[in-house]
Amino acid sequence: MKNKTDSVKIINSIINFLNEDFDIKTSLEMTAKDLRLNKKKIEEIDNNILYDGINSLIVSINLFINQEMKTVISNNFKTLRINEKIRYLIFSRFEIIDKFFDRKSIFKLVVKQKSLSKVGVMLFNISDEIWYLSGDKSTDFNYYTKRFILMNIYSASFFYFLRDNSVEYSKTREFIDKQISNVLKFGKLKSNFLNFIYSNKT
Fold first, then answer.
1. Which of 69, 119, 71, 75 is nearest to 94 (CA)?
2. What's the first-to-final CA gap in the chain, in angstroms?
3. Contacts of 130 (CB under 8 A, 6+ apart)
4. Which of 170, 3, 14 is nearest to 102 (CA)?
């Protein structure tokens, strides 16, 4: 637990300095000074977390969140419907972000990447992890369709989460519910439309 706490403290410090417009090297140096890190720890951070600057820092943060996500899955999780699992996992991820980091600081860090392609890859990986934890085993075209749809739901929900000051983020819960419901309705309409087309061909 101590190692996890220390890692979070180090990452948050680096993020704060980066968001004050210091570069990676200076942010690490100032973090090392503030937290009194020894040379070995500095080299470990540089080699394992900051080897590709902001990009690898964001990857490390997401890996940490993914590990925490596995701890929030209870025994009755398997009994939930797939849409309930997705809803639960999206919100759980937001709760983890808010518990260990600052949601607005994380958003500023992502913006600093200044690369839509890298943000896209990040969102795809987040979506893929959520589907994986939900038990999805698809390997066909649906594999990508599901993840691209979830990318949109997740990003829209996260933007809403950034501005949500309601008690226990109840408004974000409602927003996620609405986003998923809209997708389910669209899926049902699409299915009915295709059935209508094919039925009229015979």
1. 69
2. 64
3. 86, 89, 90, 93, 150, 154
4. 14
